[in-house]
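Support request, please re-run this one:
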Amino acid sequence: MKDLNTVSQLSERELRLIFELMPNGFALYEMIYNADNQPVDFRYLEMNPAFEKLTGLHISDVIGRTVKEVLPETEVSLIRKYNEIATGGGPQSFESHSKDLGKDYLVYSFSPEKGRFATIFSDISAIKRAESQIRKLSEAVKQSPASIVITDLEGTIEYVNPRFVEETGYTLEEAVGQNPKVLKSGEQSDLYYKHMWETITSGNIWTGEFHNKKKNGELYWEAAVIAPIKDENGVVTNYLAVKEDISAMKMLQSALEKAKIKAEESERIKAAFLANMSHEIRTPMNGILGFVDLLKDPNLSYEDKIEYVTIIEESGHRMLTIINDLINISKVESGQMQVNLADSNINDQIRFIQNFFKLEASKKGLELVTSCPLESDLSIIKTDREKVYAVLTNLIKNAIKFTAKGTITIGYVIKDNRMEFYVKDTGRGIPSDKLTAVFDRFQQVDTELSNGLEGSGLGLTISKAYIEMLGGKIWVDSLVGEGSTFYFTLPYNPQLENNRPYDLIEPEPSICMLPEKVTLLIVDNDDQERKYLKELLKKYNVRILSAMTCLEALEKCKSNPEINLVLMDLKMPIMNGYTATKQIKELRPSLPIIAVTSLTIDSEQYSDVFDEIIIKPLLSERCLQIVEKYLWDKLNEA
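Re-run finished. Output below.
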């Protein structure tokens, strides 16, 4: 065998054979220069068969031509690189990309003589594509919005992506070498994790959720997919976990479930409410219609008539309470309820309410007592007295309703610049699990405590809304069998001016006899309403005029300057009561005009012309108090 120490010892035939059979491409080129001796191109001189295979170019189409003719997108930098080699710069190895061929090559280039260079190259396009794919996959893992963890077969962490670091608070250095159980919160059973490991060690994919713990101790939820990574022989080498933080989704899911339960409960309560309303409305209606029919009996005794009329009156009051509750809760929930602040004497309000309910309480054998520790002037605060009155009324009605014997106490104390009111009874009490629910809408129909007792179940809901509008809060303490105490607070802002509200205090001594000079005008197009008002006011020794239209009312006010007071219905034909009142006020600005209406209105909207507003039905006590107030004012002026 020939000893070959150098290539120069090979025969030409042997060299040619190597040249023909070598798997790498080979090509010999000569440089081309311009007039300034600057390299501008190079020419193909010789190639081996592998050149054709690796480039896709035929030797016969290329040999003798320049690279710019064959591959016009060849970059100038490559021409300069080859010129450097051809002029003695020494051999170089580098990667080159051909835009024309769309391929990547690993090139070794050297110069056999000055002005010429040769290349030996291999196609690395597949490798470059694989590298690019790996690079893309690597960036995808790094930039993934999901947390990615790779472990060995023992579960030891070998890699985590930046999202894992961001989610858990563990750095890459802290995580690598740890077991994922460092994230365990203890909220899930060992059996849960055992099932997961059994699934992935058997070569299957596991999906589930983890309730994990971050480095700072914060708990969070994540959805996970864990899969085995297999080599080309199908042998599992690692485990891959792809996880996503679903804490927000879990919170939303929980909120939706609670909302669903609440909605279902609300629907159930509404259904019970509608059934209760049907009963509550039908019962007084039956009382009214039934006893009105009985009153038609001409042989009915006087005592029976009085009894039947009393029942009709009570049924009407009950019907009115239901309607008012429905209107008020509707206004509260639609945001249309207004707060009207004015000076209000709390002592007078409580005394008035005590006197108002004294008879009702005594019928059940209950004692109604009050506790007002402040002097009268110091009990005047700025608040919405009608809403305070409504709240106290609701609480006392409930106390009377649910108390069979004993005492009901109404009072207040001063605590930290707040008035703390209380209504305490010795009734049946409220179970502890119902103490909050009693303020919910329609809750009265859903409690065993109220079985057999009338009511819409809206009173406490309305009271809670009113108190919160006035800047306070309301709550209840109770023991079953011992009684309940309802509390509510209001800001204590004493108004030292002695401006006591008239309409909620006990009326002055009766003024049944008034001088003839007092004249009152009733404006209403309804015959029954006018007749009722005349009957109601006939105990006063006053002259009563009436008008069926607003135009007639205008004329009477012009022609009767002695008119001292006007009761004006708002809903009138041709011209409404508001417009008519504005015109009357232009003629007689100081003439008191009281609006009488069945409409649900915002009193602030009409306060610019009316001195007072009375909502129908016209309860005699309320109506007479207001009328007396303005008649007395006229007398005092006289």
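Confidence is low (pLDDT under 50) at residues 444-455, 498-512. The chain has five domains: 7-129, 144-245, 251-333, 342-491, 519-637.
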